[in-house]
Amino acid sequence: MPGIRKPRPLQPGDTIALVSPASPLDPKVCEFMIALLEKEDLQVRTYPHTFTRTDYLAGSDQDRASDLMTAFTDDSHAILCSRGGYGCSRLLPYLDADLMAQAGKLLFGFSDITVLHAMLSNRGMPSIHSPMGLTLNTPREEWVYESFRSSLYGQDTMHLDAPTATCVVPGEAEGTVVGGCLILLADLIGTPDQLDMKDKIVVIEGVDDPPHRVDAMLTHIINSGALPSAKGIVVGEMTRTDLPEKADPGIGSRPWREIVIERLAPLGIPLIIDFPFGHARNMLTLPLGVRAHLDAESAKLTYLESPCQS
């Protein structure tokens, strides 16, 4: 798309827009994240509906979309989402996706923010699958903060102290990293913003899904032809899926790792699981929309470029 350029890395004194495009939260929840950013000599700007609450949404669809579009078009330098939850898909009719992609600003967030990542990835704009205000309200390992801080400056976010993933299907792959939360990747199938997975390295994680729904969503993405067209697959954690209360008593249960292996391994695509990102207790920050190399046998994902201008 004409006009797309990588964002520049953040610099001391820059302003980060704090927006809530999905569910609401109390301002106190964001205090730690704001303090972390201010310690990096970054300014945090809130918007009229950053802390609005309308049932399970942070204000009306039009209000949340207006805040987001303003953040992409004003003089702020990057956009950080306060939390995920639910609501980003409802914004799509009110967003100018091309203008957002051409703005040259990094978007930070994950979970429901997967919808916005997909929209930007499809237009060639890098973004950052990262912790949010809600995420860092709970203490994490130091490497989580270090990985996130590195992402602010377009630096390598892979950290040696992070846990090692497990190889399921060996092999190597090179391609642009795309993906995010499983339920949103499945929900986007058949829409204009369906994520393009062809020849990509697809990262997938999930949270609070019953085991049979993990099976169903993976099956849906496979049947759509999207996942079979990928070059490599990196699965994080299906957080809390294995809790007893997540099982449907009428149909039974199965460990999520068994489901992932049973559904994805037959694709014959290099595949690793338990990569430390997503809703896991501790998570790496992952650039999306830039090229990386996956060595599945070594369970290593190595980025070949920065999401920011050099």
Describe the overall structure:
- The chain is an alpha/beta fold and about 300 residues long.
- It has two domains: about 120 residues, 3-Layer(aba) Sandwich (Rossmann fold), CATH 3.40.50.10740; about 140 residues, 3-Layer(bba) Sandwich (Glucose Oxidase, domain 1).
- Helix content is about 25%, strand content about 20%.
- The chain is built from nine helices and 13 strands.
- Helix 8 links the parallel strand 8 and strand 9.
State the shape.
globular
Mean pLDDT level: 97
In whole angstroms, the N-to-C terminal distance is 20 Å
Class from secondary-structure proportions: alpha/beta
CATH superfamily of the largest domain: LD-carboxypeptidase A C-terminal domain-like
- The helix content, as a percent range, equals 25-40%
Give the percentage of residues in beta strands: 15-25%
What is the number of helical segments per DSSP (H or I, 4+ residues)? 9
Which series of helices and strands comes N to C?
A: EHEHEHHEHEHEEHEHEHEEEE
Report low-confidence residues grouped into runs of 5 or more: none
Please tell me the CATH architecture of the largest domain by its name: 3-Layer(bba) Sandwich
Tally of discrete structural domains: 2
CATH third-tier fold name of the largest domain? Glucose Oxidase, domain 1
Radius of gyration over all CA atoms, rounded: 18 Å
